[in-house]
Amino acid sequence: MSNVAQTTEEKDIDLADANSILDKYETMHGALMPVLQAIQEAYGYIPEPCVHLAAERLNVYPSQIYGVLTFYAQFHLAPRGKYIVRVCMGTACHVKGAGRIGDTLKDRLGIGHAETTEDLKFTAEYVACIGACGMAPVIMVGDNTYGSMTVQKMDEVIAKYQKMD
Ligand code: FES
Questions:
Q1: Domain that holds residue 56
Q2: Which of 86, 93, 140 to mutate to test the pocket of ligand 1 (most atoms within 8 A of CB)?
Q3: Hey, is 128 helix, strand or coil?
Q4: 88 CB less than 6 Å from ligand 1?
């Protein structure tokens, strides 16, 4: 068990989960990736204090961890919204007005690509083709796909998720 403090005043992040994860993986060869994946699973992103904790306990430099985090798109260094709204900007969707759909999201929620609403409810992501070109333009909210999007449908989808917890 580590004697690393379980909270940091600086960011007010509770490191208990991160310490438990490190307890589990610390002695494993090649532990860094599974540790980072588990931390992201637990916190929804990789908080900075967790990077420093992992560096200390895995005996690597924080810069090495940041190198991994910035190389792999799967990792997020900032909190993300409960609902990830993916707006497809692939060719078929682009031709059918994906730009207008992205603009609507920006207009209604104030978020563009990789931005999160202040209440941490929504994060916008512009993505490449998600394989549903026949329904272009397409968005996804979490695992749900919405096709043939219009400004009006976008408003309906946003309203639906705004009502949800
Ligand atoms: S281009 Fe959008 S789903 Fe293929």
A1: 16-71
A2: 93
A3: coil
A4: yes
How far is the centre of ligand 1, averaged over its atoms, from the C-alpha of 151 (Å)? 17
SS3 148: coil
How many domains would you assign to the chain?
2
29 Cα: distance to centroid of ligand 1 (angstroms): 40
For the whole model, what pTM was predicted? 0.76
Spell out the per-residue pLDDT of the chain, length 165, in tens: 433 444 334 458 899 999 999 999 989 889 999 999 999 999 989 999 999 999 999 999 999 999 999 999 889 998 999 999 999 999 999 999 999 999 999 999 999 998 999 999 999 999 999 999 999 999 999 999 999 999 999 999 999 999 998
Q: 87 and 117: one domain?
A: yes
Which of 69, 59, 3, 84 minimizes the C-alpha distance to 39?
69
Does any domain span residue 4? no
